[in-house]
Amino acid sequence: MNRLRGWIAGMFFFLPLCIVSTAGGIDQGGEWKYDLHLGGNRAGTCTITRSPVRDGILETRTLVKFGIVQAGQNIDVTLDAKTTYAWPGGHPRSYAVKITSSASPETSIAGQFEGKQST
Q1: CA angle, 30 as apex, 47 and 14 as ends, to 5°?
Q2: Where do the DSSP E strands lie in the chain?
Q3: What is the mean pLDDT of each run of 10 residues along the chain (119 residues)?
Q4: Which residues contact 115 (CB under 8 A, 6 or more apart)?
């Protein structure tokens, strides 16, 4: 489950960046909702909210909820992520995600980016 958690957290760091890079009216904010499918079946939802640019910072929030079956057990997973970008360059500044699962304790992951360094 730890490897799955890491993969999922990484994926939802880059997903908002793709939307930030491609969607029109970037500095105005907006909200996008998606259904997540696994094996042809709807497995959950993803909501991405982008705030208007303030003081050269663009903020995205991602809320993902989905369910999987592992070893015959239904597992519900929720990811609540916040990413900030320096604007207009689009370079990531900070990232935090809280992952909750019905099968394991809550996990939090955070990152800070400054120039070519990250923590």
Answers
A1: 55
A2: 30-38, 41-50, 57-70, 73-86, 91-101, 104-114, 117-118
A3: 50 49 60 87 89 87 88 88 85 87 83 70
A4: none
Kind and range of the H or E run holding 20: helix 2-22
| Residue corresponding to tokens 């999987």 | 68
pLDDT of residue 117: 64
**Residues 116, 111: Cα–Cα separation, whole Å:** 13
Residue 52, helix vs strand vs coil: coil
For residue 23, the model assigns a pLDDT of 47
Structural tokens at position 113: 């980016």
Beta bridge partners of 57: 54, 86
